[in-house]
Design brief:
Elements: H1 21-32, H2 38-41, H3 47-52, E1 55-60, E2 64-65, E3 75-76, H4 86-96, E4 101-106, H5 117-130, E5 135-139, H6 147-155, E6 160-162, H7 172-175, H8 181-193, E7 197-204, H9 210-222, E8 227-232, H10 249-262, E9 266-269
Parallel strand pairs: 1-4, 2-3, 4-5, 5-6, 6-7, 7-8, 8-9
Helix pairs in contact: 4-5, 5-6, 9-10
The protein binds iron/sulfur cluster (2 copies).
């Protein structure tokens, strides 16, 4: 079809960084030790707020992904070997930043026999050993639905395990790469069945309808998910999927109330919500 002009960003997405002393101290530590967080490398608009409250997100297993989801700006290709020092380095960063709540995520490592699951488990264990008072949330890939690998993560005992559905069933094939809607549901079901707090996240603005979002809520609730985050998709670069629609803040609030009514224990639903936003409240 004809190439559409990108939509103009509405007012409610233009925000200024709010920050306090804690943020400034954290930023000094990050700069001094050259620590790597998703918050700063992804220039997340919530950085002031999250760091002020002692939450940050780290990406492990490298920065080259074996998949190429159309909403994601991560480089795709053949990843480098895993860094055996990474679990200790991430733990040390969390300790230096004095985080109350650490969120860990990774690229997908379909190139490795265990898809990176043992490296994940080592990282969780190392953080727990180094920072026993920091709560840990892991935003995991689907490990191709391999429950034996997901069990390695569960056995390492993070406080929250999260796996993102990203979008509604109909749009999944055109938005995600390799991952399927049903495989992600299966992953979530397996985590929830183990009794761990189970969380998922989706983006709006890709062309989904409210009805479809409600169906997704029903699907994840039925497998035991208790926390969901809903935010606006923002096109990270011109190579990524365009934004179909900027969803109004009132609609995010409407979905929050619908979700609470349906039975989620906790929902974050607002334009700038990211999967790790207000994560410490989901414990
Ligand atoms: Fe970091 Fe996530 Fe907060 Fe953004 S929302 S600043 S990535 S912890
Ligand atoms: Fe990005 Fe994750 Fe998709 Fe890789 S699997 S392209 S990191 S969203």
């Amino acid at each position: 079809g004809p190439r559409k002009r990108p939509l103009r960003k509405p007012e409610w997405l233009k925000i200024s960084l709010s920050a306090n002393d804690h943020f400034a101290r954290t930023k000094d530590i990050v700069d001094k030790h050259c620590l790597h967080t998703i918050c700063s490398s992804g220039r997340c608009p919530n950085m002031g707020e999250c760091w002020s409250r002692g939450t940050a997100t780290f990406m492990i297993a490298g920065d080259i992904c074996t998949r190429a989801c159309r909403f994601c700006n991560t480089n795709t290709g053949k990843p480098l070997p895993l860094d055996p020092n990474e679990p200790a380095n991430v733990a040390r960063s969390i300790e230096l930043m004095k985080l109350k709540h650490a969120v860990i995520t990774s690229v997908d490592r379909d190139d490795l026999p265990d898809y990176g699951a043992n490296h994940w488990a080592n990282t969780i264990r190392q953080i727990k050993a180094t920072c026993p008072n920091t709560t840990i949330e892991v935003l995991i890939p689907d490990f191709r639905g391999r429950t034996d690998l997901i069990d390695l993560i569960i056995a390492a005992k993070p406080d929250i395990i999260s796996h993102n559905m990203e979008t509604v069933r109909r749009l999944t094939p055109s938005v995600r790469h390799v991952a399927t809607y049903d495989c992600s549901l299966h992953v979530l079901a397996h985590i929830a069945a183990a009794g761990v707090t189970t969380k998922t996240g989706i983006m709006l603005g890709l062309g989904e309808t409210e009805q479809e979002v409600c169906e997704l809520m029903d699907d994840v609730l039925s497998v035991g998910v208790s926390v969901i985050t809903i935010g606006q998709y923002l096109q990270p670069s011109r190579r990524n999927l365009p934004v179909e629609e900027y969803i109004r803040p009132e609609q995010f609030e409407r979905l929050r109330l619908i979700g609470l009514e349906k039975g989620f224990r906790h929902i974050e639903s607002a334009p700038l919500v990211r999967s790790s936003y207000h994560a410490e409240r989901h414990l």
